[in-house]
């Protein structure tokens, strides 16, 4: 049940930001709020658990892609990174007190994911080039997050540029 709550919370976060309610989550899962609070005593604990679960999974997926065949996995790696960017977009975090802590954690994990993604780059890529590429990729993905467009064409073009 704990895993189901976390997975449903990730989907609610994507749709509503951190303002999603425990009531809505309970309704979505057809369980009581009491059941959610049995596993997560407050929303802060739930928010941290969902980000920990999400980033553990995404970083593991990225590592497996880098090990398998980094050059041919760039599309999938950038797709994972794009998904990560959607999880830290500005409209996710709102006025609640947990935002600083959760936002800081999620941003650190997004940075760690970028390091995994850049492991797929050519060994000749300089640090300055990696920083420049991140600005280009992050800028592209920020626009995509706000536009709510299908990212595949942009990610495909970025792969060609890399």
| Low-pLDDT ranges | none
Q: What is the 3D form?
A: elongated
> How many runs of DSSP E, i.e. beta strands?
0
Helix segment count?
A: 8
Q: Sketch the major β-sheet.
A: none
CA-to-CA gap between the ends? 42 Å
What's the quick description here?
With 162 residues, the chain is mostly helical.
SSE blueprint and pairings:
Elements lengths: L1 H15 L5 H8 L3 H7 L3 H26 L5 H14 L11 H20 L8 H21 L4 H10 L1
Helix pairs in contact: 1-4, 4-5, 4-6, 5-6, 5-8
Report what the structure shows.
Helices cover 75% and strands 0% of the residues. It has 162 residues and is mostly helical. The model has no long low-confidence stretch (mean pLDDT 86).
Jot down its keywords.
elongated, mainly alpha, single chain, 75% helix, 0% strand, 162 residues
């Amino acid at each position: 049940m704990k895993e189901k709550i976390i997975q449903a919370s990730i989907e609610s976060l994507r749709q509503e930001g951190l303002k999603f309610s425990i009531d809505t989550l309970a309704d979505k899962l057809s369980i009581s709020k009491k059941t959610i609070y049995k596993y997560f005593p407050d929303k802060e604990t739930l928010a941290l658990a969902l980000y920990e679960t999400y980033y553990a999974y995404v970083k593991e997926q990225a590592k497996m892609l880098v090990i398998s065949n980094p050059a041919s996995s760039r599309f999938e790696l950038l797709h994972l990174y794009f998904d990560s960017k959607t999880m830290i977009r500005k409209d996710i975090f709102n006025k609640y007190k947990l935002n600083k802590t959760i936002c800081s954690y999620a941003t650190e994990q997004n940075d760690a994911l970028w390091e995994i993604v850049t492991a797929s780059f050519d060994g000749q890529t300089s640090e300055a080039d990696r920083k420049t590429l991140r600005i280009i990729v992050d800028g592209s993905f920020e626009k995509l997050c706000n536009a709510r467009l299908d990212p595949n064409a942009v990610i495909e073009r970025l792969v060609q540029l890399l």
